[in-house]
Automatic annotation (TrEMBL):
GO terms for biological process: regulation of DNA-templated transcription. The lineage of its organism: Bacteria, Pseudomonadati, Pseudomonadota, Betaproteobacteria, Burkholderiales. It comes from the Bacteria. This is LuxR family transcriptional regulator. InterPro entries: Sig_transdc_resp-reg_C-effctor (IPR016032), TF_LuxR_autoind-bd_dom (IPR005143), TF_LuxR_autoind-bd_dom_sf (IPR036693), Tscrpt_reg_LuxR_C (IPR000792), WH-like_DNA-bd_sf (IPR036388). Gene3D superfamilies: Transcription factor LuxR-like, autoinducer-binding domain, Winged helix-like DNA-binding domain superfamily/Winged helix DNA-binding domain.
Amino acid sequence: MLREFIDSSLQNAVNIDVWFNALVEVGRRHQLEYTTFALLPRDSLPYSEVFYKSNYSAVWQKIYEQKRYAEIDPIVRHCRSKMTPLVWGSETFIGAQEEALYEQACAFGSRWGVALPIHGPKHEVGMLCFASSVRSDEAKRDAVSSLPELGLVRDFASPAGLSLARQKTSAVAPKLTPREMECLKWMSLGKGTWEISQILRCSQSTINYHITNIRIKMGVHSRSAAMIKAVGMGLIEL
């Protein structure tokens, strides 16, 4: 039954919404009503570049983003640095800042849960997190006993989610010329304007022209921002 679910609902999902709704259903079967899937294409990228899906209220998601809670969230910290699953609750949040975060999360129904780290073969990093608003020792025991199943779901959900996310971002990726793609590639390898001009056998002003066009098409103001955005869109790999 689990195998059929993975094949039909995760690996063969036709779009991101179908795929994510399948994850939400997994959580609800274990009395975990909230589901979050978050994935950075590269562990070196800032949180602003995360691929993120959640069924938390839009209000809580906005507060979490505006207050940059990901930077102090112990669940996020665990998943970025460890491979083991985390059954978390009030005891996970230590210190005034983290306790304040937990209290606010509780107000939006996130009292305890299970977080499963994601570490991909191309330096992807993220988590699949299920949470509950109900204080229930029985539900916690069920979640712990279901960790092998949830881990398997995580393993199959991650590549499918990343693929769907890349399809979505590539659909809105700007169209770059072959020369602009070459410049972007060499920029990602740490080459400066002069070095790229030598490699491509053209003037530095020509390279600067192409890089300016890249930034304009990407809607950013710096080379580093252009590379970060290109990685998120699947145009290049760092």
